[in-house]
Specification:
The chain has about 425 residues and is an alpha/beta fold. It has two domains: about 130 residues, Aspartate Aminotransferase, domain 1 (Alpha-Beta Complex); about 250 residues, Type I PLP-dependent aspartate aminotransferase-like (Major domain) (Aspartate Aminotransferase, domain 2), CATH 3.40.640.10. It has twelve helices and 15 strands. Strands 4-10-9-8-7-5-6 form a seven-stranded mixed sheet, sandwiched between helices. Helix 1 packs antiparallel against helix 12, helix 4 runs parallel beside helix 9 and helix 10 runs parallel beside helix 12. The longest helix has 22 residues. It binds pyridoxal-5'-phosphate. Pyridoxal-5'-phosphate (PLP) binds next to helix 5 and helix 6.
Length: about 425
């Protein structure tokens, strides 16, 4: 794509954008340019009605009968099957349940049991904190295990040895947006005799993910970021078919039992992916996700990726041209092939700048100590939005408005 040189070039691109109509599927507040869909996706227009239907009809009228009649009991599996194509999995390899943190604990514990005699779990020092904490918790709650860290800039080969049982990595770095080569690294881990768990929180819905083709063993991801499933919507877990029969996870709750309504005193894991379930699913939280997956079922992920690359590249080019001289540094890879669907900028006063920008209707976010993050979500963003966002960022920088005292006080959630 030739980089548009004016706002009307951007508007022209929007006119010919094959994804342009998808924007109508979302409710977005007037005057807001939403560049934080990598943290919390916006509301699918159909979701409000879907929630109302679930509450008023399925619950209000159906009552307990809806566990069967409205398919509540099977939601983790039916929605898992609908997420499967988005991550390159088979329909019976994914369940939707619990949070990413809990699912990581389950798949990690299962993976460790599949590698008896090995006691090291490798994860990245700069990974999303919950991944680090869960690896620490899982390795310290079972005897003899240890956590080993891969540091930024270090090659995976340096930490792999014949004691490594499992490697846990993020597909896209939540800070910089750096995209990892899933196929190559999974292969590298397998050649060292270990199992590979990918956290795809920042890649699912952002780009094509190919868990099956890459031979991935287990994966986890959330649905409230690029998938637009709503605040706190349930996460998912992937377990390759070849592992399902032997995989045992320690949170052996009744929804993972082979016959939950036998109420037997002995735990017998369900035959397939269902053994990764624990307890009663939060049924209401599945409703917005269903509306969101209705949208995703009509979307070509290749087109999403192409537009995402075009948008992040446009943003980088415009920031370099319009915002030079204000101390901003591009923290994301400049090669779009090595980038997810976000662009991060560094600035020592990043927190104040993002607050001032949000006040001007451009919503991005901040990650300590100095990272401004901007997510580019092709389903509801226009090229003209990218242009306008950079203009407003330039105005914030040139006016110095961010120096005002009110932008300094930290909010609870950044
Ligand atoms: C957002 C995110 C999570 C979130 O975990 P929760 O259990 O949903 O809070 C985990 N890992 C990564 C890499 C994330 O980006």
């Amino acid at each position: 794509m030739v980089t548009p040189a004016t706002r009307s070039d951007c508007a022209e691109l929007d006119k010919h954008d094959p994804l342009a109509r998808m924007r109508e599927e979302f409710t977005l507040p007037d005057g807001v340019i939403y560049l934080d869909g990598n943290s919390l996706g916006p509301l699918p227009r159909a979701a409000s009605e879907r929630v109302r239907e679930l509450v008023d009809v399925e619950w209000g009228e159906g009552l307990v009968r809806s566990w069967n009649d409205a398919g509540w009991f099977d939601k983790p599996r039916t929605l898992g099957a609908r997420i499967a194509p988005l991550v390159g999995a088979q329909p019976d390899e994914v369940v939707v349940c619990d949070s990413t943190s809990i699912n990581l604990f389950k798949v990690l514990s299962a993976a460790l049991r599949l590698r008896p005699g090995r006691s090291t779990v490798v994860t990245e020092a700069g990974g999303f904190p919950t991944d680090l904490y869960i690896v620490e918790g899982a390795t310290s709650s079972a005897k003899g295990y240890r956590r080993k860290l891969l540091y930024d800039g270090q090659d995976l080969a340096e930490v792999l040895d014949d004691d490594v049982a499992v490697v846990v990595l993020g597909h896209v770095d939540y800070r910089t947006g750096r995209l990892r080569d899933m196929a190559r690294m999974t292969d590298q881990v397998h050649r060292a005799g270990a199992l590979m768990i990918w956290d795809v929180c920042h890649s699912v819905g952002a780009l094509p993910v190919r868990l099956g083709d890459c031979g991935v063993d287990f994966a986890v991801g959330c649905t409230y970021k690029y998938l637009n499933g709503g605040p706190g919507s349930p996460a998912f877990a992937f377990a390759a078919r070849r592992h399902q029969h032997d995989a045992r996870q320690p949170l052996s709750g009744w929804h993972g039992h082979a016959d939950p309504f036998a109420f037997s005193a002995e735990y017998q894991p369900a035959p397939g992916i269902s053994r990764f379930l624990v307890g009663t699913p939060p049924v209401v939280s599945y409703a917005p996700l269903e509306s969101s997956l209705d949208i995703w079922s009509r979307v070509d992920m290749g087109r999403v990726r192409a537009k995402s690359v075009a948008m992040t590249s446009l943003f980088v080019t415009l920031v370099e041209a319009e915002c030079a001289g204000h101390g901003l540094e591009i923290a994301s890879p400049l090669d779009p092939e090595e980038r997810g669907s976000q662009v991060s900028l560094r600035h020592p006063d990043g927190y104040r700048i993002i607050r001032a920008l949000i006040e001007r209707g451009v919503i991005g976010d901040f990650r300590t100590p100095d990272m401004l993050r901007f997510g580019f979500t092709p389903l509801y963003l226009r090229y003209a939005d990218v242009w306008d966002a950079v203009v407003r960022l330039r105005d914030v920088l040139e006016s110095g408005v961010w120096r005002e005292e009110r932008f300094g006080a930290p909010a609870t959630v950044t």
